[in-house]
Structures are given as structure tokens and as C-alpha cells.
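Homework help board

Subject: predicted structure for assignment chain

Our instructor gave us this sequence and asked us to write out the predicted structure in C-alpha cell form, then describe one feature. I got the C-alpha cells but I'm not sure how to describe them. Can anyone check?
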Amino acid sequence: MTAEPKPASYSRVTLARIMDDGDANLLGNVHGGVIMKTVDDTGGACAARHCREPAVTVAMDEMVFQEPVRVGDILTTRAMVNWVGSTSLEVGVRVTAQRWDDAGEEEHHVASAYLVFVPVGADERPLPVPELILESEEGHRRWREAEIRREHRLAKRAEIRAWRAQG
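My C-alpha cell output:
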């Protein structure tokens, strides 16, 4: 049985941490994989909150790094549910960094990513996703853009399968 519908604000998650030497390459820039793992952790926590069940990552859209993150920066990830289907949901994650010595300055937008999660039960089978209550025009915009991304993911998968089937 599906849980009660929830607004996107119910499951918002924000995580922040200071980047250290263990996160960086020889140039002092944080590895993209470290940032991607943080994005996945934040998105997964958001999905699990919305579903009230563990959720697994099934897709991550392209992620472009707009600025480097350096040792000492405060990395912040903010996640929010954009769209829900019957057994999957899309979570958007925004990544920012604030230089350790620029407390009064704006955060720098580092990257954004869209991830698809599926809640699973103890038997690792998909579970139903609670409906999403759209609270604003921004929520409606995010929903529609998520639908477009989903259509593109499904079309790409179908086209690849058709091409492979040709032999």
C-alpha cells in the first residue's frame, strides 16, 4: 500500500562538509568522484525520506563540473524530489562550495545532477512511491523538466536496444 502523499519540502536534505587532503588530487582539487559520491549520498537520503524506505540509485544524468572544489572548501549538497512515478522518483541535487576564507561571500555553484532512485523492500524488489504534492510554480516546473529528462532516458535506452538488436 502506498504511503500518504508528501510535499517536496518534506524530504529536502542538505549536507555540508569540509574537504580535506584525502579528497583531493595532486593539484589540491577535490576528485570528481568524491563529489559524485556526496551527490549520491544526499540524493539517496532525500529519496529514502520521501519513500520512508531504503532507495537505490538506478540512474544519474550527466554531471558537469563548473568550478573546481579545493581542499578546505565547504562543500554543500542540497537535494529535493522533482518527480515521482509508480516505483521510481527523480531527485535533483545542487552542489555548491564556499571558500574557507570567504565566509561573507556567495557560495560558488559547482554542479547540478539529477538522479533516479527506486525504493526497495527487504526482498530487494521495487516498492510503490508516495505521490508528490507540488507546492509552487517552481515545483510544477521541476516536475515537467523531470518528465522531459525521463522521456529522453527512455528514448535513448530504446534506441540503443533497437540498434543492438540489428546485430
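Reply (TA_rk): Your C-alpha cells look well-formed. For the description, you could write something like this. The chain has one domain: 6-165. That's the kind of observation they're looking for.
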